[in-house]
Protein: guanylate cyclase
Organism: Dreissena polymorpha
Amino acid sequence: MMKSIAIGGLLFNIQMERDMSILYISRLGLGSKTFLIADYDETDNAFGQMWAWPMEFTTHEMKQFRNKESLMSYINLHRTSLDINTSTTKSELEFYNGIVEFLLDWMIFNIEGTGFGNVWKTLVVFQKITWCTLDAGAERAYGALFFANGNFPDAGMYDEYLNRISRFNHNFKTSAFFSDLVDPSAEEKLDSNKYTSAIQLLRAEIRYSNFSGNYSSLVKAQAYFDNATFRIDYLYTLQKALGQMVITDMNVTLKVIELQVLAYAVVAVIVIAACPVIMFFSEALTSHMQTYSKVLMKTSNELKDEQSKTDTLLYQMLPKPVADRLKKNSKFESEFFKSATIMFTSIVDFNELTTKLPPLDLVDLLNGLYTAMDDKLKMFDVYKVETINDTYMVASGVPVPNDSRHPAEIACLSLEIVSMIKKQAFGATRIKIPLQLKVGFSTGSVSAGVVGSVMLRYCLFGDTVNTASRMRSCGEPNMIHINEPTYRLLEKTGFFVLKPRGAITVKGKGKMLTYWLMGAIPKPTENTVTNEWRLPGEAYSYTSSTSLYNPSGVGPSNLYGLSKTTSASGSLTQYATIHI
């Protein structure tokens, strides 16, 4: 900005030198260059105040502008060649206007790049007033030339004169929108002065002149020059005031920026100083987080293990589907199953055993029996409901319905259990006592639900449960006792050997027709290579084994001489033999 103000002063002096040179070669001149020396000195002094030449000029294509000394030499060469006989007003205007417009273009460009904050408004005014100073100087030269020579040499200079006045008026009026220093009524105040009121008349005379007339008047030429100079002095004063205002505003803004930079620097120093502390605490925090993560992971794994143990225990108390539903909801609605099969078993003469055996031996005996029976459950689609004393209760078709397969599932399980009991194939470690079981099951509708809030149990209710219990209590040792509805369902499969027992009196039921489940049907004859039978939802085939009760095989797959096959609908193992 300081460079722009210095160049503004240089422009002012160059324009003054230009106008005095034009007067010298016109009829207003005194015929000697002596009166120009003072203007030359003012211009040289303005160059001297340019302590630093703009760096942008050092690579300019026109060599006379690359540094201050080159431009001064360029102007001094022109001063020397100035001659009242050979020089023309047009050549003087072109020479000085070229320098003025070059410097003015750079100054305007430089001003546009330095504005920030509220300073840009004052810079806009400074730019417009600088243009006004340039146009007022050109008008002074053209007006004095007109009256000195009697007319303009050509129409182009006349148009240039009018354009300069028009641009001056526009820039001066619009500059008032951006700064209070510019008074739009200044022209009227200046024109009221006796030295400046005449310029309006002189402008009018030039505006309405024609190119063929002679308006030569040294008095008017001098008056035009003096009045225009008065205006230029006012504009130059205004320009300097605006420049000082810009410098003041920029200094204030720079002070604010310095304070901000200082504050930022202090904050940066504090942050840098705090970095080691922050890094230490960050590292400590990271270490604690890693330790906590390891502890959390270990605790999470332990929690998962405990959760797994809890689920295992819960699944032993309740069916898995029921337990899963209870974990999701605190309540479990009771269910009704239209068709299911319930089986009971009990030890024959159990009360006598309780009096003969020590408690530990009795518990060991029951544990060995029930553990062996529990292992059999894995082979079938059944669910162990509960054990009470010597009573062992199993169901099929609940809590997950399995269509019509539940009678066959329970029938096969009962055959497995009776076979095991007859061979005494269960592991009691403390005492070996031969046991016999009563087995009975029944098929029908049941209701199911979770009972209690402590030691939850999945309980079954209904006449089917009572009937199954009566079938067991009215049965015979190592025999499988069933009622008539169960008999009909097993008979439909064509896969089991059933024997009528006849009508018996059942407590709470009266006369009932009951049956014995003797075993599975015989294997096919030797003439039949294979013969496929299908129970509900299962596929099976016969083997060529002729042995009964698995005397040589291991596992249930050939226990009754029937090989096990698995279908997509379940895991029921089927057998084909005669249960004797």
